[in-house]
Amino acid sequence: MERKDILSAPFVKAMEDITANMYRLGWDERNGGNISYLLSEEEVAAYLDITRVIRKIPTGFDAGPLTGKYFIVTGTGKYFKNVKEDPETNLGIIRIASDGTTADLLWGYRDGGKFTSELPAHLMSHIARLSVDPENRVVMHCHPTNLLAMTYVHPLDTCEFTHTLWQMSTECIVVFPEGVEVLPWMLCGTNEIGEATAEKMKSARSVVWALHGLYGAGKTLDEAFGLVETVEKAATIYMLTAGLKRVNTITDEQLKILAAAFKVTPKAGILKTK
Ligand code: 2HA
Ligand code: ZN
After folding, report:
1. Is residue 196 within 8 Å of 186, Cβ to Cβ?
2. Which of 108, 148, 151, 157 is most solvent-facing, going by the fewest CB within 10 Å?
3. What was the pLDDT predicted at 2?
């Protein structure tokens, strides 16, 4: 079978472009951030011999529900800044093996590396998102500057945090009507933070890791990116105004008018009923 060059694959190009954009926006300093993107077998097989496993890498937890699924994932310790110039070292394509606890490496991590240390949070989040949205394909983690700053000065209650973000820009309630979920500080890279993130991902596509960053999910890289961008924009407005006397705001009544006009259902319990 004639296979195309993997470096020309749209999903590799898209990963190169999105990581470059995220780096440019200051969301992914050094090795900060990671992305996992669910691919179909047909997509991968057009470029790679899927029977040729380069290495087997333990995942460190049971990803059983994702057995046989393919992902392109950023590498541990790798810099988003460098993905475009050397995708084969900074990215990898894996398939979750039948035991659920091993990943078959099919391409990438050329220097002997492996996937992000946050793989548990990613795969558990994929399982959670797929259970509520079968079309979800992307989980993205990054360190957006103003959102991170906001977690230092704003209460971490999910409802209060969501309400403030909704007030910070008219489009917020339309883009994330389900709100953002907020986790307290936890040790990253662990199964525990993965489980906590995935639990939150059942009800929202954005999960804030207080004093660390943000997880966003979506059907496409663009959708997840746009979500992160919108949350970060709102947090930026918050940080620009937090120390100032606020004389205007978007009211709950106006948020309800917006939700009705754009036919979205806002997360319950946030807007005042009167
Ligand atoms: O991979 O962002 O949370 C670097 C990180 C860890
Ligand atoms: Zn991080």
Report:
1. yes
2. 157
3. 83
Write the single-letter amino acid at 50: I
Pocket flag, ligand 1, residue 31 (CB < 6 Å)? yes
DSSP state for residue 52 in the 8-state scheme: -
Could you say which ligand is closest to the alpha carbon of residue 121?
Answer: 1
- Please tell me the chain's helix, strand, coil percentages from 3-state DSSP, rounded to the nearest 5: 40, 20, 40
Which residue CA neighbors atom 3 of ligand 1 most closely?
Answer: 188
The single-letter DSSP state of residue 25 is T
Distance CA 257, CA 33 (A): 36
d(CA 257, CA 160): 20
Compute the distance between CA of residue 168 and CA of residue 163 in angstroms, rounded to an integer: 9
For residue 100, the CA-to-ligand 2 centroid distance in Å is: 25
Helices and strands in the chain: count of H runs, count of E runs: 10, 9
Which pLDDT belongs to residue 91? 98
Counting as low any pLDDT under 50, the low residues of the chain are: none
pLDDT for the residue numbered 245: 97
Q: Ligand 1 in contact with 188 (CB < 6 A)? A: yes
Strand (E) or helix (H) holding 90: helix 87-90
pLDDT at 169: 97
Ligand 1 contact via 32 beta carbon (within 6 Å): yes
Return the pLDDT at 273.
83
Count other C-beta atoms under 10 Å from residue 244's C-beta.
7
